[in-house]
Design goal:
Chains A, B: InterPro entries: Ser/Thr_Dehydratase (IPR050147), Ser/Thr_deHydtase_PyrdxlP-BS (IPR000634), TrpB-like_PALP (IPR001926), TrpB-like_PALP_sf (IPR036052). Chains A, B: Keywords: Lyase, Pyridoxal phosphate. Chains A, B: This is Threonine/serine dehydratase. 2 copies of one chain form a homodimer. The first copy, chain A, has a 6-stranded mixed beta sheet with strand order 1-2-10-7-8-9, sandwiched between helices. In chain A, strands 5-4-3-6 form a 4-stranded parallel beta sheet, sandwiched between helices. Chain A folds into 2 domains: 232 residues, Rossmann fold (3-Layer(aba) Sandwich), CATH 3.40.50.1100; 96 residues, Rossmann fold (3-Layer(aba) Sandwich), CATH 3.40.50.1100. With 334 residues, chain A is of the alpha/beta class. In chain A, helix 3 packs across helix 8, helix 13 crosses helix 14 and helix 13 crosses helix 15. The mean pLDDT of chain A is 95. The termini of chain A are far apart. The longest helix of chain A is centred in the C-terminal third of the chain and has 15 residues. In chain A, helix 5 links the parallel strand 3 and strand 4. Chain A is built from 15 helices and 10 strands. Chains A and B meet through helix 2, helix 6, helix 13 and helix 15 of A and helix 2, helix 6, helix 13 and helix 15 of B.
Chain lengths: 334, 334
């Protein structure tokens, strides 16, 4: 179904913004003068952990399901996800009265599985290494007449996630800031390509970057080679939300057009970013949600004398993992 | 100087709101449908950890210093505080170009001392048990011609903290909620009495409560007896920000007039509230900032079938303490 649709443009993101406005939270843009002093630039944090379901994924999910026909909504939807898309889809489905089945990896964070169930979704688990989650989900969709909601490679999903772009530009303007660069975490690329598509349309002088975990830099390598590259491993990053095997067709096409590059941070740098978000912004950020911030703190994206907006994309992290990240960061600075 | 001023009224809070508007953050009112379902009521969280300096104290400090004469501002200010008032005063002084000296307990959280210094203030330490911090500060003020800024018992401070009240009522209205009750943490009572004064003026049907740590319930006992009661101990609560020895004269007079009571929670219940704020609201709340939430979760303030706004008043907590709180909460629910 998605193959017929053209690449999403800024007008699609504007339409998505109207569609989701009443159901979503206009998350705040946080700033801390002390941090700015230390960095020698202006750091703005778009706080998507405060979004409904604790991550940006609710935006795309709600934009998608609200475009289904009454018949499609009655028949239900199915999605596959390591956790945040699962929660976003489950909650959007609940609000829009659609039965949801979600295919999740057996090692997904407990908090993400519990929350998906709490929104009333039926959860089916799979093994990240042995099973093909998309095949399981598409099989279910076919057998039960459900609509499959892909996690990133669909124009409706990308347009939904892209709604963060105009919010950032508008909020930065209200704060008297002119944006030199925006950076957002990247797994399959729905968030980063959606935001870049919006930002380049409204503020063409602003650079747009994706951020990936070291060793899972499929987008960086895809942009470098001009063809879609896969990650060698499918497990093993601290950033559980950023383990998509490769960019999608839609997201890669948009990334080539609108992204200025994809930057990389290590797991330890991500833990340091989570600690900074905790200490200076009082915000809980999950590992995958902090990789953009890590790319500013490790110098991959220079901030000195500039204004940089970092999207912190989610905050669904188990207490044990969060405690370990704070402990890691404390050891590094001790 | 403060003894000449009348009790602050709603008009003073309105004036304070105008005075501080450009310098403060209108912190968001957070809500989570899943939490509401579980509680059987509507829980709104006023997220003051996202305030400048990480707590509500900036409001009162900025309202106070901005009313000083040019001569007084040049001569500088002095304040005594376990940490959040210190940071609020230091940052407000920096913004308004006033030299600041802050008297802090030697066992104040490291993060609070470091942040106070980072705002350019001179820090003088004291011993909570042996020394009289107010005497040290007032001595300094006299010797150096500085203005002393009390942590809570002054109409300008109370009016500044009270600005949270109209924000809550306005934001609740925007969210389609009619407030049955508001609860705010209480140490000396500036926050809770200020908010209650505003809320009772705008929304007389809304109940207003203070929240105190068990064993440090000086306000609850003062309200019960009709005279100011002191805490037996000055140290030993997990809630480092809530250790004032007794209500102030202004704050107690306002509390008697406008508060419907003061509720109590144990340290373990506070740790549980910090964990809920972490898990469901992605918000870092310090122990003293979470005692109002703890009073909802422990049933002291009933929420079933009602709408309750909880002020989470600050988020300045050391990583080690936060990790310990999450671990305590995990043990309790295991």
């Amino acid at each position: 179904m998605s193959s017929d649709l053209p690449l999403p443009a800024y007008a699609d993101i504007e339409a998505a913004a109207q569609r989701i406005e009443a159901a979503t939270i206009r998350t705040p843009l946080l700033e801390n003068p002390r941090v700015n002093d230390r960095l020698g630039g202006r750091l703005l944090i778009k706080a998507e952990p405060l979004q409904r379901t604790g991550s940006f994924k609710f935006r795309g999910a709600y934009n998608f399901i609200s475009q289904l026909s009454p018949d499609q909504r009655r028949a239900g939807i199915v999605a596959w996800s390591s956790g945040n898309h699962a929660q976003g889809v489950a909650e959007a489905a609940r609000l829009l009265g659609t039965p949801a089945t979600i295919v999740m990896p057996i090692d997904a964070p407990a908090i993400k599985v519990a929350n998906t169930r709490a929104s009333g979704a039926h959860v089916v688990t799979y093994d990240r290494i042995k099973d093909d989650r998309e095949a399981i989900a598409r099989g279910l969709a076919e057998r039960e007449g459900r609509t499959a909601i892909p996690p990133y490679d669909h124009p409706w999903i990308i347009a939904g996630q892209g709604t963060i772009g105009p919010e950032i530009v508008d909020q930065a303007q209200s704060a008297g800031a002119s944006l030199d660069a925006v950076i957002a975490p990247c797994s399959g690329g729905g968030l980063s390509s959606g935001i870049a598509t919006a930002v380049k349309a409204i503020s063409p002088g602003t650079q747009c970057f994706a951020a990936e975990p070291a060793g899972f830099d499929d987008l960086a390598r895809s942009l470098a080679t001009g063809t879609i590259q896969r990650n060698e491993r499918l497990v093993g990053s601290f950033c559980d939300a950023l383990l998509a095997p490769c960019p999608g067709n839609y997201t890669f096409a948009l990334a080539r057009k609108n992204l200025d590059g994809s930057l990389v941070a290590t797991d330890d740098e991500v833990a340091g970013a989570m600690e900074l978000a905790f200490r200076e912004f009082k915000l809980v950020v999950e590992p995958g949600g902090a990789v953009g911030l890590a790319c500013v703190l490790n110098g991959a994206l220079p901030i000195q004398g500039r204004t940089v907006c970092v999207v912190c994309s989610g905050g669904n992290v188990d207490g044990e993992v969060f405690r370990a990240a704070l402990a890691t960061a404390a050891r590094r600075t001790a």
